[in-house]
Amino acid sequence: MDLDSFLRDPQSRRRFFRMSGMGVAGGSAVFLAACSDDTKNPVSLGPDESDQADVEILNGALDLELMAVAAYKAGAGKLTGDRLAMVKDFLEQEQEHADGLAAAIKDADGTPNRAKEAYDFPVLRSPSDVLRFAVDVENTAIAAYIDALPKLTQGDLRSTAASIITNEAEHLSILLEELGREPVPAAFVTGRPT
Amino acid sequence: MASRVEIRGGEDGCAEIESFERDRRELLQRGVGLGGAAIAAASIPLLWSVRSASAEDAGDFLNSAINLERAMVIAYDTVLGGGLLSPAVRRVLRRFRAQEQEHADALTTALTDLGGTPPAPPKGVADVDKIVEGLSGVRSQADVVSFLIELETAAVAAYFDAHAELSEAKLLQTGASIMANEGQHLVVLRRIAGKDPIPNAFETGAQ
Fold first, then answer.
1. B183, containing H or E segment
2. ipTM associated with this complex
C-alpha cells in the first residue's frame, strides 16, 4: 500500500499500529490490552502487582519505540543532507527511549520485548512520504503514551513518560515545519489530528 | 509518595528550609549559563507547590499551574510590547502567548469544575520574577529569546516533577499535553537562538 492510501484509510492505520503493538491516534487505544479503562486512576497494588502492571505498560511502550526506530531507519534511505541528519538524531533519541524502557523493565524483574523481525510499513517513495509517515508515527506514539500515562503506578515512571511525550512532540514540531506546516499548531499536544 | 521535598527530623521549620535551599540551589544551577536569566530564589514556592501536588490535593496543583501559566502570559505580553522583536519573531511569540492563555483558561475551568476558586489575578512582572528573573533587563531580541527559553524550561521542569506526585488521570494527561506544548515552544525558541532544538531524548527541564 502506498503512503497516501495508508494515511487516508483509518482502518489500514489501525490494523498497522495494532500489529505494531501501538494504539492509534483518533482510534481505539490498544496500547495496553491489560488495561481496560482509560479513565481509571492508578490503583493501589502490592509491590509485585505494581511492578507487573508497570512492566506490561512499559513493554507496550517499548514495542512502540522499537517500531519508531525501524520506521526512521526505513525512511533514512530516502533522505539526504540536513534532513538525513535530522532523522538520524531522532532515531538515536527513539533508541535512547527504548534503552531506557528496557532498563526499567529489567529493574522491575521483567523481560523486555524485542524488535520484530520485520515491520509492514507503507511504501515510502519520496522525502515527503518519509516526513508525513514520521508525523503519523510521532502522533501515534504521543497518543499512546498519553493513554498509558495514568496507568503507570510509579511516580518516577510517570515523569519519565511525560518527558518522552514532550520529546516526541518536539520531533513532531520539526517534522511539521519541514513539511511547510505550522510547527506548534495547538496548545494541547494529544497526538490527535488538529 | 516520592518527592524531592523531604521533611526530615528536627524542627519542621529547619527541615523545610533545608529542602527549600536544596531546591533553590538546584534551580539556580539550571539557570546558570543561559543568557544571563537566572531562576529567582523567590520562584521556589510556586514551583515547589506544583511539584508537591498530590492526588488528595488536585486543587493545589491547579492553583499553582494557573499561576505559572498566567505569569507566562504576562511575560509574553511584556516582550510583545517591548519593541525589540522582528515581525517574524513577533508572530511566533503572539501564537505562544495565546497558547499559554489557553492553558491558563483550561486549568481554571478544571479548578472551578472541582468547586475550587481560582487564584487572584497576577499583579504583573513581579509574578514572572518569582519564576525567572531578568525580564525587565532584556535589551535585545536575543535577550528576549534567551529569557523565554529559561522560562519555558522552568515550566517543563515544574510539570515534569508534578507528574511524579499526581495520580488523577485527567490531570496527568492534561499536564502532559501542556508540558509537550511547552517543549514545542522550546524547539522554536532554540532554533531562533541558533541552538540545538532538541538536545535531549528526555525533556525534563533540566539544563
1. helix B169-192
2. 0.83
